Amino acid sequence: MRALALVCSLNASPTPSSSHHLADQVMAELASRGIPGETVRVADHSVLPGVAPDMGEGDDWPALREKVLACDVLVLATPIWLGHPSSVCQRVLERLNADTSETGDDGLPLMYGKVAAVAVVGNEDGAHKVSADVFQGLNDVGFTLAAGAATYWVGEAMHGTDYQDLRETPEAVASTTRALAANAAHLARLLDDAPFPAS
């Protein structure tokens, strides 16, 4: 089994990113449960706007889409911007939407049987709202969500501390991340053993 984290920071590498930091923690927890994977910063790629699998010349989404199709667990990591998921996260959801009408050899939509989880960081309240927005988008395109499928950290309103700058991970975040990984890994194995029926 394989995991993939798509980090939806607005900043390309090598700029430090709290979203990337939390995604790496989720991926480490998944790897410790036998589901290794890869973390990709979406802003390092040219993902063109649209709702097709391939928007043509200059579009890097087809290569990222292949990684999504090859994974069993997808982690979508996003910062909170103006109370919403980042524009990069929204773009990923829009591009994933192209696959809602595509089916595999089993007759099922391509994303059925894949587990999704969400990691959110920000300096304001809103992690539950952002998780809900992303959950709905992921579920609409066919991903399955485990219990406790989100981990997050938000600081006090109007302060300047970033998650990546904390000296240590708060235990509440660490335990939530562990639970997310345990539940996602468990569900991915269940779905691998007993896929959804064709409708």
Automatic annotation (TrEMBL):
It comes from the Bacteria. One of its GO terms (molecular function) is oxidoreductase activity. It holds the Pfam family FMN_red. SUPFAM superfamilies: Flavoproteins. Residues 1-149 form the NADPH-dependent FMN reductase-like domain. This is Flavodoxin. It comes from Streptomyces gougerotii.
